[in-house]
Amino acid sequence: MKKRLLIIICILLVLSSITIIIVSQKTKKEDSVAYDDGITYIDPNTIILNDSGAKVSFSEVILSQPEETRKLIVFTQKATVGANIEKDKIKNIEFEFLKQRQKVTYTANGNFVVDLDKLTENSIKDDADNKILTIIIDHPYLDSIEIDPQKIIVGDQENGKLAFGDMALTINDYVSLETELQFNLKNALNTANNGQEADDRALRMVKKIYEPVVKAVDKEYTVEVKFR
Fold first, then answer.
1. What's this model's pTM, rounded to 2 decimal places?
2. Which of left, alpha, beta for 24 (phi over 0: left; psi -120 to 50: alpha)?
């Protein structure tokens, strides 16, 4: 029963999983990203702009092309949640001695992202007098939940005194279980503490991405990142 339940849950995960195209790269202490922005990177601190002999505006080197989708993962957090399956051995007869129960536990990573492709010319404020470029971004949000299929735990079945045999679960039972676990994961991950951590990291990481690009246009500029 446990093996069959685990197989069906894994199938539902494959069918219902949300995938996103992301660009991310981890360093030892802080996260950073690598992406193709029409810029040639010689090393992490040196870049060459295409047509570097021409005058280039900040918006030309920062803004995405219309067809681009770039999601920057700024924070990943792990959570573990459980849900209980409960069935009556005899349908519509609810006595404790006829109850059957089983617990399923999921462990997953939640990814908080910033949509870099949503930057527009209104997101870029150029203070030419003080040589400060301000980039205005949206707050990061919980974009995807990646469930680890190796860490799905199906507990032992508990039967009432007269509830013999395995639970007779329907497809609707499995779907309801999957829905409950996904809901519990979102609640466990989408907390104020995680949101604050994602905010703090977003400001640092977006600055790290764009400051070298801005300095390639004018090395006297500094970059500030603020939320909309």
1. 0.69
2. beta
Tokens of 212: 């070298």
In the chain, the N- to C-terminal Cα span, in Å, equals 51
User: Residue 142's pLDDT is what?
Assistant: 95
DSSP letters, 16-84, are H--------EE-SSSEE----SSEEEEETTEEEETTTTS---HHHHHSPPTT---EEEEEEEEEEEEEE
The domain segmentation of the chain, as residue ranges, is 2-227
Report the DSSP beta bridge partners of residue 83.
104
Between β-strands 99-115 and 141-147, what pairing exists: parallel, antiparallel or unpaired?
antiparallel
Task: Name the one residue in this structure whose structure tokens are 């390639």.
Answer: 216
**Predicted confidence (pLDDT) per residue in 48-105, tens digit:** 444 434 344 677 667 766 566 688 899 999 999 998 888 776 676 677 777 888 889 9
